[in-house]
Amino acid sequence: MNINILIVGVGGQGTLLASKILGNYATLINKDCKLSEVHGMSQRGGSVVTYVRISDKVYSPLIDKKNADVILAFEELEALRWADYIKDGGMIIINKQNLYPMPVITGKVDYPADIYERVGGYGAQIRNIDALEIAMKLGDLRTVNVAVLGFCAVLLKFDREKFKEAIKNSVPASTFDINLRAFEEGEKRA
After folding, report:
1. What are the respective helix, strand and coil percentages of the chain, to the nearest 5?
2. Model confidence, pTM
3. Cβ–Cβ < 8 Å for 85, 121
4. What is the pLDDT, as a whole number, of residue 12?
5. What letters, b where the CB count within 10 A reaches 16 and e where it falls short, cover 145-170?
């Protein structure tokens, strides 16, 4: 496995936990993994991006533009904001969720209505999931990230049992059951 994954979202969506789970998964399959995080006013709903690189040997944690195999976008506008990182033929997985940035909230700009069309212009395969709906059904909005990972794990043919173990190793024991259910619901949507 040699894969570059960019996880993008806004503060509070669990992008950092998602990267931790992916890093733990890489360890369980005996691969090298490097992670790097960028927070932009994340506690005020700003953009959060995490680079995850998995391979036999990884020398740098960063992913250059047009070099991501997969982008996991936890929010639709973030998918557009980071789409120039996807390589030709890569995959962008978009969670169907809109979190309005401050300029939209104040009425200075409109939330783009053509996000999927514009993201499609980057030559990637686009897949989407309504992970918010899954999390609401489970009664815990904090599980959106793990539902997206379940969806992703199927599409990327990750080892299911190792991935479940990675979740167990990465979340507090008291939240493992709900996160496992979110993962399984995400798998069903793939």
Report:
1. 45, 25, 30
2. 0.93
3. no
4. 83
5. bbbbbbbbbbebebeeeebbebbeeb
